[in-house]
Amino acid sequence: MLEVVFLGTGGSMPTEGRNLPAIAIRYQGWVLLLDAGEDVQRQFERANLGTNKRQAIFITHMHADHILGLPGLLLRFSLLGRIRPLSVYGPNELIQYVKSAQNTMHFGTTFETTVYGIREGPIFNVDDLCVNAFEVDHRGYALGYEIVYQRPTGSFLPETAMNLGVPKDPHWQALSAGQEVELADGRKIRPEEVTGPKPPPIRIVYSGDTRPCQSLKQAATNADLLICEAMYASEHANLAEERGHTTAAAAAQLALDAGVKLLALTHYSPRYEDGAAIIKEALSINPNTILARDLMKIKMHKDGSHEIILPTI
Ligand SMILES: [Zn+2]
Ligand SMILES: [Zn+2]
Description:
Blueprint: E1 2-8, E2 22-27, E3 30-34, H1 40-46, E4 54-58, H2 64-67, H3 69-79, E5 86-90, H4 93-104, E6 113-117, E7 121-126, E8 129-135, E9 143-149, H5 158-163, H6 168-176, E10 181-182, E11 188-189, E12 202-206, H7 214-220, E13 225-229, H8 237-243, H9 248-258, E14 262-266, H10 276-283, E15 289-291, E16 297-300, E17 306-309
Parallel strand pairs: 3-4, 4-5, 5-6, 12-13, 13-14, 14-15
Antiparallel strand pairs: 1-2, 1-16, 2-3, 7-8, 8-9, 9-12, 10-11, 16-17
The structure holds zinc ion (ZN) (2 copies).
Residues 61, 63, 138, 209 line the site of one zinc ion.
């Protein structure tokens, strides 16, 4: 349904085991990329995310650890002959950044690249999925993103289908998968006629870099998954405040207060290489917390459940 792939879980500097921020979300043939930290193109390869998929890139802010991988990724797609157009969204400076990277390094792309400077609000929409941006509290202009997937139909109602005279074979399966069917007598049956009310959307929220703030809490309210930075443990709460970041404890508390179903902590400082201090602190406040690792995946199923797949390499 929706698959989140953590390509990089580091913050500020890469370490031996962790790359810089990049998160891919797979959805019906699409790859949505949140941030493009250094080495994202290699992680793309390792996660087998393809070259010519329908794709959009969302950048949270212009700090180097979140954008250094973008020119390399564009170059990679060109070298591999991508033809599908690609849209990139982020702060206004992103337009100049991509342009000057291409001009100074003398590379064009084999595909149409459009960079949009955005403010908060709805920015992207495809099929049943949309992406909204919201401003967060970092150093300089910074955004977080909310990915909203509206599940197309409620659960299939066999009795209603029977009452409407819809034969089980071959139509029930198509209707429960959200497709309209035509009966032998010419009647068309829409999935909404034989399914319960639409379930609430599946919502994934990504904080980018930020201090704990009201806009993040609001976006994260009742989210299925909050991917939140946790740069420091509480021992460095002063650094978090000074540098515009969140501690593990503050992330855990914010997720708890917002009713988040699952909190995944990422962008933790190189000083916590194994992340043990980060996850320990967060779990003491919020048990629905996991620590993201590079190439870890979270599958978000249609029924609202999730599955965590740890990397094998
Ligand atoms: Zn960062
Ligand atoms: Zn930053």
